[in-house]
Specification:
The protein is 58% helix and 0% strand. It is mainly alpha-helical. Helix 2 crosses helix 3 (38-50).
Length: 65
């Protein structure tokens, strides 16, 4: 029987990454708490940090009206 892949919402990923950035717990502890693989925590954190500079770059932000 094949397992179905779960899709996590951006809100869920953000919540997990914030926990990882705080560094109060190891990736494995955070992963266990949220029932995901520790590699996902690490990958999501790397992705978030790599795009963090775009938040303050006016040229890369979507224009609000």
């Amino acid at each position: 029987m094949k397992k179905h892949r779960r899709k996590h919402s951006p809100k869920f990923k953000t919540k997990v990454v914030i926990e990882a950035i705080k560094e109060d717990e190891a990736f494995s502890q955070i992963a266990h708490e949220y029932e995901i693989h520790p590699t996902m925590v690490c990958n999501w954190k790397k992705e978030m940090l790599s795009h963090l500079l775009d938040v303050f770059d006016k040229n890369k932000r979507p224009k609000t009206e």
